Amino acid sequence: MREGFGGTLCALATLACTAQSPYVEPQPSRFPDAGGPAYVDLVVSYSQDGVPVTCTDSLAPVCQAQEGACGDHAVLGAPDGQSFSMQGASQLEVGFLCQPIVDRAPNSDLSPDFVIWGNVESGSGAVVSVSEDGSNFVVLDSFVSDDQSFDLSSGDLEYVRFVRIASQSGAALSIDAIEALP
Ligand SMILES: [Ca+2]
Hints:
The protein is mainly beta.
């Protein structure tokens, strides 16, 4: 039956079945194979100097390059020396829609699952939260040192698709890329 079949598809790909979703079938050929390194493929929103920017005009089909006003954001893709600067109270929310960040060793605290490639000025830092669905975030850890690794085990999560980084007044840091470790 058509409805049953559609329901199954939605269950398999819930992101593709939200109302007004622009997402379509993944096209993995444009990204590393599952199990390889993966990087931010969606900038959801960010703020600088208290001015929020939402990238709602730039949602692309899953596993295709982001388009629109945020399509050239410095944090997208692999480390390339181009960094997003967070000075003072700032926020950055990004997605891994093509390939999520997975807890690689659920029973171990010794296996990092993702890396924030960037620089943190001494004494500075930001709060890192993660989410499976982009709505419900849990605080995971603090980003306080250059090129820092994070472990989903500390948040008791199997996988996440969204990362939010929030700094407060006086903070000074920059983020080049975020990598989901293979
Ligand atoms: Ca970059």
